[in-house]
Amino acid sequence: MSDTYIRKGFGLKKEIEETLEKEYQSPLIDQIKAAGYELTRGETTVKLAKEYGFCYGVDRSIDYAYQTVKKFPDKIIYLTGEIIHNPFVNRRLIAMGVRFLSGPYNQGEKIEDVKREDIVILPAFGVTVSLLEQLKKTGCVLVDTTCGSVLNVWKHVNRFSKENYTALVHGKYYHEETLATVSQAMMHDGGRYIIVRNFAETEIVCDYIRQGGHQAVFIDKFENKISEGFDPDRDLQKIGVANQTTMLANESLKIAEMIKEAMTDRYGVEHIDEHFRAFDTICSATQERQDAIIDMLEKGVDLTLVIGGFNSSNTNNLTNIAQKYGPAYYIEDASHLIDRKRIRHKIPDSTDIVTTEDWLPPGKAIIGITAGASTPDSKMEEVVEKIFLLRGA
After folding, report:
1. pTM for this predicted structure
2. Reported CATH class of domain 149-282
3. From 82, 177, 332, 381, the catalytic residue
4. Is residue 389 within a helix (H) or strand (E), and if so which, with residue range?
């Protein structure tokens, strides 16, 4: 903390409280929670997962952004990129005058435009070490809203690098959080990293650990997912496992176990501590939301709606879970419930946005609802009301 680096807000929480409540909270959602997470109108029952929507890190990030606007009404305020992956929240900040230095809301502003007298907000995902250093050199005020769970991952990745272990990160190589995380691995001489998305990519790494392989083929396979100068013969000898906080928790744990088994096969159980490190960096909010949707689905619903920004990793993963139990649709907001016949939704793990016919069941129906960690209750309320409207309740 200093005059130019702020991590605890500006003490203006009460001044912005009414605005945040009006824009992001919902009396209807509160009512449903109070009634046992269930509401019936006519033949339609809506069930909520018991953990959903804004997590603490997102809530804090938005809080600090609004405090920043309140504190500096006459200053130019920038965000390095999307503060969270929710279009409603990002558009609200634009309406408040905040400018975006990158991403889909950027209007041509660049890092080079930032002046000493400006304010720059760092998003919940954090930023890369190099970007942070570049911003510090401007002398501007930095308001850091990086989530504490992300900072915990960074701590371990930094330690891996310091102890000469390659950081293997389960995540999406293009995601802001993952880019920021792997930059921590490069803070020490000889630092290196590799990013794996799924079991298939992890299996390729495990095969190379066990028996070696063609170096050039491996490097080509993991293009854009490895540190510069990565040498699998050298850099897969000692691995520390971490994860993007919004990935499927059981997948992250399985990937760590796969790497440990490969290291054990190669070096023997008596030497495993010399070649393998892993710490539980699963975000508790991510885990809770995944557990809650499973609990809701196991009790029975006719279909599930998962609400969140279409570039939200944790919302994507909630949809993947839901689709194992029955019809489930990943929507951004109530406008995607076009009518009783048609729904516009995103296919998980793709960029495809499609329209499906005959999505809403007739007669008595139980509709399960959850939301990603970047989705405000107000957006959930709009979806609930639209469901009741479409079913004549």
Report:
1. 0.93
2. alpha beta
3. 177
4. helix 377-390
